[in-house]
Amino acid sequence: MKISNLSLAVSLATTGLMSASHVFAQDLSSENNAGPIEEVVVTGVGSVKRTSFDTPLSVNSFDETEIARLAASSNADILRNVPGISAEGGGGEVAVNLFVPGLPAAGQYAFTPLNYDNFTVVSYFGLNSSSFDVYHRSDIGLERVEVVRGGVSNLFGPGSVAGILNFISKKGSIDPEAKVELEVAEEGRVATNFAVSGPVGESTSDFYALSGYYRYDEGPIDTGLETKGYQIKGNYLHEFEDGSGNFAVYGQVIDDDVQFFLPLPLDADSDEFARGNNGSEVRTIQTDALDNFVYPTANGLRDLRVGNGVETSGSTIAVEINKEYESGWAFGAKAKYSEYTHYFNLFIPAGGDAVLSTDAFLAQQGLDGFENATFTNLNTGQTLSDSDLVYRTQAWDRRRPVEDVTAQFDLSKSFEINGLEHNFTGGIWLSRADADDFNNRVFYLSEFNDSPDLLALSVSGDDLNTAETETGTRHYSVNGFAGSGGHVNAGGSATRQAFYFADQIEADRWNFDIGFRFERFSAEYFDEGSQSAAIDPSLYAISDDDIVLANLQNDTIGNGIFTRLDVDATAWAGAIAGLYRINDQLNVYGNLSRGFFWPQARTLPGQVNNVSGVDNPIAFVENQFEEEIIDRIEVGLKLDTELFTGSIGLYNLQLSDSTTFRQVEQDDGTFEVEAILQETDTTGIDASGTFYFGSNFSVDVNLTYADHEFTAGPNDGNEIRRQPNFLAGSNFKYETDTFDASLSYSYRGDSFGDDSNNRELDGFGFWRAQAGYNLPLSGDDSLRIALSIFNLTDEEGLTEGNPRAGTGPQGDFAVGRPILPRRASLKLTYTF
């Protein structure tokens, strides 16, 4: 693997550690750098207007300008700049794998609710495994992004100790604004973005904002498959004439198909791209040969959707009202409804041992005894040699519709007692999520090449293994189709009811927060069993005298027998936090919180299978359902001077009561259930900051060091998979009124691809560069021309191993997902 410039990343990050955390200009910069500090209502911190500098929590934010400079193609491009978060974007624009050190997860925002405009995208993760960011995308209409961790951030709304991510849209004002952007990039990307806002007509109290995109993309990895689609979102804001509050309506519509890039077999010795039959590097196993593919099932022919990638269509509507009264009382209420039709279609790699020579493949499938065996490339018509490599793997169609409703009601009161200013907030948060998970799996046979062609495989003649003679032609793969199976029909609903209160206290140099949350959770989940069913052989396009082999004779379908579970539980969370202003430039803070995470309901049927030997296993699993507990403590410093703004935090995080079950057979033949606890302990340092060198040049740095391990369970003493101990980044920025440029470096340390720590993934780093020129036109009109290059030196590294099949090298190959390749893009932005 390439790990160039590691020493530079370490030195820069260590500098940041000595000084610490980055909070960008909108919230925190000193007056000499970016004007007076602006007060904002930080996500998840109640109704008090505080700067992030004065909040006793870990807060990172990115303003509109910084987001534009990052030239983000996915949320990972933004979030990898936040200390304490590991963001993997190797899959492309969506399904960012987001990890919080110390919390085992498959990614997908499991512990970190994704909010847009303070509304959570989906209120519960666990009815299926689709990532929240497939439903709602970012565009140039963003005003800022906030990430808040610890303290009372786990009490309000959806709640989360691990962190709440909030993408906040720009709202209209009395001054109209408009922006149109055209983007072109390597590998066939063309995109248009727009954002407009301003007053409604001549009104001074009614405002609107509207933004959206349409893009077409054939990259960044050339699979022959397209990414295309659009999103439009907007908001309407009415300010009450007496200045006491506002009413807002938010809406979003999306219809988008985006390719998602999966792991693939790599060279086992180097973890670099392997060579295919044609001598070229194999950079993807995804292929347009499966686009518009039709295959036989027990219920007739079915269209395969995997060529469409991740499909999302649907909408969200939300309303919000905030009202303040002269008596010191304030009321807030908001509600959201969303509904999406969604498919998360996947090319799933088999293990490295599935890449075989034609001879080895025939032997594996028990077909090596036939007199004749022919592998035919369906695109070129050529036959493969005995030494050519083939790969039998799979594609999944996964239909996952979702419907989500949330509502929140807050009542606040500000008052003073004995010189202490109290800001009390009590509230209710309600939600219901409904989602399904319908899956169909297809096996296909292909050559081992980049974006491979499909293969037909037939055998004929005498079979020496069975002593059959003149067997006729038998087909293992017809039009590339090599079998089906893996039927899933599951889904359910989850309801959450939370009650919370918090008091935010301010006194001279002190800020205190204290709060409590009580929540009731209930979920219903079903999972249908499966059975084998015959496929009508006439559905295959073969000669009448030919037959198909066993792998093509049967399909897997539902059997009409459902496992149904109904669980409910209650949990509580609490937090206390404090901040002391040592002087105008230095604050010290600390927070202590106890939070919880609800287990994923989709795992419950599997637990029933694990305890099938006990009386009434469904009731047993239902009765054992409870929350997983997360305890977090943090202390830190925040600094704000003319030369530096930032913070450093030392924390400890513990996960407990993460429980699964298995049945153990006793000597007398009976079964007893054994609880398997999985607990973790993590101690870490998060640091980030910005150094200012004059009015034009600055350097951002961020660092995370996390010492994490399992402290109970089958992996006791091991590190948590896919979570490096060390993360670091730097960003050198130069900016004038007409020109700006930046050069950033991100480093991700060594990690393990699995919890058993059998597969080690080497650390890697990559550069990103961008430069822009603003051409003034007339008045406030301007044209910005910007060039950005992702992965400037085309570094290689693995973001993950193969979490779906196998843990390490298998034969000459090991499955892993590399970082995305170098890509240059050009943006023209017209502001008027």
Helix content: under 10%
Gross geometry:
globular
Proportion of strand residues: over 45%
Q: Low-confidence parts lasting 5 or more residues at pLDDT below 50?
A: 1-40
Distance between the termini: 47 Å
Q: Quick one: how many beta strands?
A: 43
Mean pLDDT, all residues: 89
CA radius of gyration? 28 Å
Q: Give a quick account of the main beta sheet: strands, pairing sense, barrel closure.
A: 22 strands, antiparallel, barrel
Q: Count the helices. How many? A: 8
Supply the helix-strand structural class: mainly beta
How does this model look, in words?
The chain is globular. With 832 residues, the protein is mainly β. A hairpin with a 2-residue loop joins β39 and β40. The protein starts with 5 loop residues before the first helix and ends with a strand. The model is unreliable at 1-40 (pLDDT under 50). Helices cover 7% and strands 54% of the residues. α7 (604-610) crosses α8. It contains eight helices and 43 strands.
